[in-house]
Design a protein that fits this description.
The chain is 15% helix and 0% strand. The protein is mainly alpha-helical and 78 residues long.
């Protein structure tokens, strides 16, 4: 049974791209904020979310001003 949480894997400095290529200047133990996984094809940027467009469901915006003919009809009876 799952509780809806995603599992995260522990990362280590030995798996970091910068440490594996002798580019790391951090002396603290443990992964830092600049951690990037070491891949055979080199340093890759993190995968970003894709932007999905939704279709507009309303035909008219609720806050739109009335058109000129609608305004004339509203004020014609005044």
């Amino acid at each position: 049974m799952t509780d809806g949480r995603t599992r995260t894997t522990k990362v280590s400095c030995e798996e970091c791209f910068f440490r594996a290529n002798l580019l790391c200047a951090v002396t603290d133990s443990g992964p830092c904020a600049t951690y990037r996984p070491n891949h055979p094809d080199g340093l890759r940027p993190p995968q970003q979310l894709q932007f999905m467009f939704r279709q507009d469901r309303r035909l008219q915006v609720a806050w739109a001003f009335p058109s000129a003919s609608e305004q004339r009809a509203l004020h014609a009876g005044v």
